[in-house]
Amino acid sequence: MPEEFIQKLKNLLGKNLLEYSVGRRNRIFVKVKNGYHREVVGLFLEMEAHLSVISSVDLGEELELVYHFEIKPLQVCLKTSASKAKPTIETISDIYPSAAWYEREAMEMMGIDIANHPDPRHLFLPDDYTEFPLRRY
Amino acid sequence: MFEKLVNYCRMKSPWLLHVSCGSCNNCDIEVLAALAPRFDVERFGGVLKPNPRHTDIIVVTGIMTLKMTDVLKRLYEQTPDPKAVVAIGSCAISKGIFRETYASYGPADAVVPVDAYIPGCPPRPQAILHGVVTALSALWGG
Amino acid sequence: MDMIVQIGPQHLALAEPERFKIHTEGEKVVDVEMAVGYNHRGIEKLAERKTFEQDILLVERICGICSMSHPVAFTQAVEDIAGVDIPERANHLRMIIAELERIHSHLLWAGIAAEIIGIETLFMYIWKDREFVLDQLEIITGNRNHYAWNTIGGCRKDITEEHFPGLLTAIEVVERRTEFYIDSFLRNRTIKARLIGTGVLPKEDARRLCTVGPTARASGYAVDVRKDDPHLAYNKVEWEEIVLDEGDNMTRAKVRLLEILESAKIIRQAIQALKELPEGDIAVPVKEVPPGESVGRYEAPRGEVFHYVKSNGTFYPERLKVRAPTYANIQAVPIMLLGDTLADVPISLASIDPCFCCTDR
Fold this sequence. Notes:
The complex is a heterotrimer.
Chain A lengths: L1 H12 L3 E6 L4 E6 L4 H10 L3 E9 L3 E10 L2 E10 L4 E3 L8 H12 L2 E3 L22
Parallel strand pairs in A: 2-5, 6-7
Antiparallel strand pairs in A: 1-2, 3-4, 4-5
Chain B lengths: L1 H11 L2 E6 L5 H8 L13 E2 L8 E5 L7 H10 L5 E5 L1 H5 L21 E3 L6 H16 L2
Parallel strand pairs in B: 1-2, 1-3, 3-4, 4-5
Chain C lengths: L1 E6 L11 E7 L2 E8 L7 H5 L4 H9 L8 H14 L5 H30 L2 H22 L8 E2 L2 E2 L8 H24 L1 H7 L7 H6 L4 H5 L7 H4 L20 H28 L15 E9 L2 E9 L5 E7 L1 H5 L3 H5 L7 H7 L4 H5 L1
Antiparallel strand pairs in C: 1-2, 2-3, 4-5, 6-7, 7-8
């Protein structure tokens, strides 16, 4: 079942599927090139995926966003990243409305710039807080 | 003599205001469990009230988070004298396991003057009752 | 006349601080603005500076009521990265404490819901019965909450023959009392008038907003991590997933109270399994955690708890991401409140069983 899923993604994306791995208990990790994640999320919506959360990771030179989906019985982590100098990633809140709050948290904690977000205010931190707490400088 | 009578009445019927400033909610549930029939704080005259103008004792839990500290200061100023502040739990006394976090202005006594400390993570309801009653007799038992 | 009512950071209806601005026209609610972050403690950053074993105690203190949920999700993710399978007995031990926690959390919710409606007698009865469960937890683990029951690779203590009789008696008492409370909630005229038809969340909205837990199951959206992603020993015992359709406050109350009876069934079967497994085999040693990443999920009393752990081969995790169930459910609150009167707002807010300390971390 994981193999068929990976094949479907390969057919959709071709060389924009940068890397993939399969872990224990049906966990799948997939990385796509920045700009192509919206297509994959649209495909997941047709497969009735459930969005759990969006995490942000500081990789040193790049900032990465990980979208966690459940497509029964698989757990899929879809990753995409942008350089720290210009960290712009497109929103998915028009496809999955609950992504809006998760993206607000990524913006304030890691400093990722989510393009076309409907409500880019601070969520957990006070409005006048200027640093990015989760970055590893 | 009138003073003694008033203090006696204050001691026998303390009205509590509960403010949670960034806690894991465990100390708050133990404060509510102190109201439940097994531990029963109402036999000491204590009730939980929502209005700061009516209270004698402010019960504080949690590390003082960035957004909640101003609210606590304003509630403290709105409460009429004489009043007491009781800090419940390790987080309010010393920030506990969250000592190195960026998201706090300090333990409770960095923000408001504290009169009694009840340690524990969480303190048992019996400890909370004991702490509140000891604080009462120390402040107004005279 | 239009009004803005603020249910502010400090309010008797909420145990934890968050700010809700309710816009009303007369008595009817027309808009809701939510501001969170009053409880933010920076736990994800703190976790990067403590070792994996120290992090178990840190994530336990994300929330006081779901204090078994976060350690189980975290240790499952780390055990996946390390590639170990924990012993069968440890799975059953974790499951017993987890279901005891589910029982005490649902009873806590039922008492608070009764108090918010105004029936303080029922609050006192329910919290008195909740103490029986907390007694058993204290006898077995040593503390009423914050059990420190987990370690990477298994459990730290065992449940032996001498604990079984007390545990079985307590379960029986709680089952009998829960049947009385189900009867009270379903037949009392005041409770029916307050809960039926208020705070409705339709199935399509529950699915579109990806809600979890009893909030989703009461609207017909069947998500339960115990069935979808089998972990611990849930696929070795027989129990039913409670899914109902109407989506109002009364349905959410029914789902939670019926789940208490299912949890009692699970605990009895787990005790039977423990009698047949050899004692003492409760943990495997895990010396180091190799580089890698994984996802740990667990069904807390409020819904799906999600932990994403990334390790770089040192003693400290590189990244820990925590998502608590209320973070997903709170985005459905405006839909539940729109159209109802102002007096229904506290009980509708309480019906998603909010845990804002988990949301803000």
